[in-house]
Structures are given as C-alpha cells and as structure tokens.
Amino acid sequence: MSATQKAQVFHSFGLDQLTIEERPLQKPGPGQLLLRMKAASLNYRDLLMVAGNYNPRLKMPLVPCSDGVGVVEEAGEGCARKPGTRVSPIFARTWHDGPPFREMLKRTHGGPLDGTLQQFMVVPEEDVVHVPEHLGDEEAAALPCAGLTAWSSLVERGPVRPGEKLLILGTGGVSIFALQFGRILGAEIIVTSGSDAKLQKAAELGAHHLINYRTNPNWDREVFKLTGGQGVDHIVEVGGVGTLEKSIRSVRPGGSIYLIGVLAGKEAPLDLTPVLMQDIRIQGVVVGSRRAFQNMNRAVDVHEIHPVVDRVFSFEESVQAFEYLKSGSHFGKICIRIQD
User: Fold this and answer.
1) Which residue(s) pair with 309 in the sheet?
2) Measuring CA to CA, how many Å separate 41 from each of 2, 138, 313?
3) Which of 33, 68, 216, 232 has the highest CB neighbour count under 10 A?
4) Could you read off the pLDDT of 184-236 as tens digits, one per residue?
5) Please, which residues have CB within 8 angstroms of residue 293's CB and are 6 or more apart in sequence?
6) H-helix or E-strand containing 169?
C-alpha cells in the first residue's frame, strides 16, 4: 500500500478552494480502524462549512463531509472487526447513546474533525456501525446524517404513530428519508415542494398529499383543508424561520415541529404566541447517537429501504457535486464515489 493517500481539502473558505491533495497515510493504533473510503454523501451543513457560513472560526486545513462508508483495510490491536467489513463512521465520535452533550460538538466529522471525503481515514472502532448488506456504497453513505436525522425526528423524538398526519417540507435528503420512514410507521403524509416533477416523485414513494408552494404560497391553508381544519400531528421543518411561521399555523394544538434546517433563512420576525397558546412543541434535532443509528439500520434492513440517490459524482468532481447541492435541483441525496 502507498504511504500516501488523496483527500479533498480546503485551506480557506470557498468552493473554489477545495482541491485534491496528497496526504500521509495514517496507521491505526490500538482500538482504531483504517477505513478504505468507498463513498461520501453531501449535506447542506457540508456546503455551509466549506463556504464559511457554518463556523467562521473553523480551523483549517480541513477535509469536508460528515457522511461516508468504507471497508476496514487494517484493524489496530484489540479490534474485533475484520478487514473487508463495511462500516460507516458515526457523525459525532463518542456519542454512543443518550441525549446530545456539549463536548460531542467538538468531535463531529467534516468540521472540526477531518471528514469522509478522502481515500482513507482512521477512526476508533467504537465509533463505527455496520451498514445493511442490501445497500450499494452510495446508498449506505447517505445514512449517517440525513437518514439518522429523519429517524431521530420521527422515532426517537416523536414517535410518529400509525394514522397520524405528517407534513414534510421539501424533497432533499432528510425530507425524503422522512417520507420513507413515515411510510413504514403508517403515517398519512403531506409533502411540499416548488417543483411538480419532484412532487410526482414523492407520490411514487408513497406521499398521500402534494402541495406546490410556488403555485400555492399559502400552503399552510391547504394543509389546514387537507386535515379537516385540525392541523397535522408532526412537521419535518427544514426551512428555518423562513417557513416556521407557516409550520406553526399548520400543526395541531399539542403537535410537534422538528426543526432541522435553515434553508429558507435564519432570521425573520416570528410570532410565538400560537406556540404558547396551543402547546406546540418545537424540537431541534441534531442527527443521533450510535444506538439510534444501529436501530435505524435494522429498520432499513427489515423493510429493504433503499435511500434515494439523485446523482453520483466522481471524487475528482467533488466541487461540481457541491455546486449541484447549492443549486437545489436534487431530489434525495447527492453522493461522491471515492474509489471502487
């Protein structure tokens, strides 16, 4: 094996600063695994990180991306996993169970720790999970953040019960996973999008009701009609304050809004009176623990769920993959094939 490896690295902010570099190949120490990375997937967080909009004081150089899948190339002393085993690193090292804690935010892949967009990476054995065998590498690479965030919202934080009404905003990675998980949980699902073509794809995945927010900007009123004036039980909210006010008007008294993204903005005037008067729960969701990841993978395995991958780019096309994410044209996940 070569003593070096290739990685996508940025030394200053901006997509034009992301370049391929040769880096020394690390050896795994006791309790560590050397993974030959097969694929990575992109999250909006990764784009914000590279652009400098997530943490302006981020220490660089940095390898981006928090999601990926690889095979064990070499196992350090004391490790049980054998070479050839396919695994995914968890998002936040040492977060194995229980609620999130402040220190874990210093141990997340793709910032501040080097991420998955490299040919090899060394991780503690306790910070990886097996991935379902029926998934391709790109599909498996979609699970660690987008899949687990949706699972944590609907199962760990919910739970969504059969027959309950679930509103999902958008058709990106987290949203499409929420649609797939909502189906196996027995929910009645409403999906919004600005594209009729994307809404048709959502219908093919099992969405019961579709709302185009461009042709129907008062989509909260349409949700109200679809639910007989009651509102939905759960909302997967990826827009942030730009859509939160309409989400508050769309949820039933005592219902839950899972706040995941800020795609429609971080700052805007917001009337919180309905939240107080109607006992609405707004729950921030930050991915999930290793235990939750393992539980999700069991469900993905049993139900033979296939993550929706919109497009796969080569390792050399990583900048184009980020540009495609930035365009908002995707349906589901965008992946990068690192090596065969």
Assistant:
1) 333
2) 25, 7, 10
3) 68
4) 999 999 999 999 999 999 999 999 999 999 999 999 999 999 999 999 999 99
5) 88, 90, 129, 143, 144, 148
6) strand 165-169
CA distances, 17 to each of 9, 50, 64, 112, 336 (Å): 8, 9, 12, 17, 18
What is 4-142+307-337's CATH number? 3.90.180.10
Global pTM value: 0.95
When computed from its CA atoms, the radius of gyration of the chain, rounded to whole angstroms, is 20
223 burial class (0-12, 13-18, 19+ CB within 10 angstroms)? buried
Rounded CA gap, 142 and 148, in Å? 9
Buried b (16+ CB within 10 A) or exposed e, 83-107: eebbbbbbbbbebbeeebeeebeee
What is the predicted pLDDT for the residue at 265? 46
Q: Kindly list the domain boundaries of the chain, sorted by start residue.
A: 4-142+307-337, 147-284
pLDDT digits (tens, 9 = 90+) for 50-92: 999 999 999 999 999 999 999 999 999 999 999 999 999 999 9
The CATH number of 147-284 is 3.40.50.720
